[in-house]
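Example (one chain per record):
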Amino acid sequence: MTPPFRTQQHKDDLIEALKNNIIDVISSDHSPWDVEEKQKEFDHAKFGINTLETTFSTALDNLLEATGLESIITKLSINPRSILQLDIPILKTGFEANFTLYNPTKKWTPSANDWASKSKNSPFIGKELTGVVYQTIKH
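Predicted structure:
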């Protein structure tokens, strides 16, 4: 949330850059802060929100129509690994399991009570989102 989006044109330009592969990666920048750091005067509050539980859903809600599911998944998972020169996980006998179970069409409403993160600061609490991550498996 730093810098914050400024105008609709700013958002449109970012989406266009994602569509045209000018931007290669979508990152959550999960920056949770405890209540004491957020409930201050605006100029003194810490930047950041809890994005751990909502990154996939907010990407789907805001980018699916423009970029497609495959592009979102690639920019969230494959491209960061490629840039960092990490192996790309594959589902094959003899290889370490590393995958995510998700439903890209399921609707859900985030509740801070259900979150794994200790931080509960998010503008998405109580708002319907699309796309649920059920589990990440790494073994």
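Caption: The chain has a mean pLDDT of 88.
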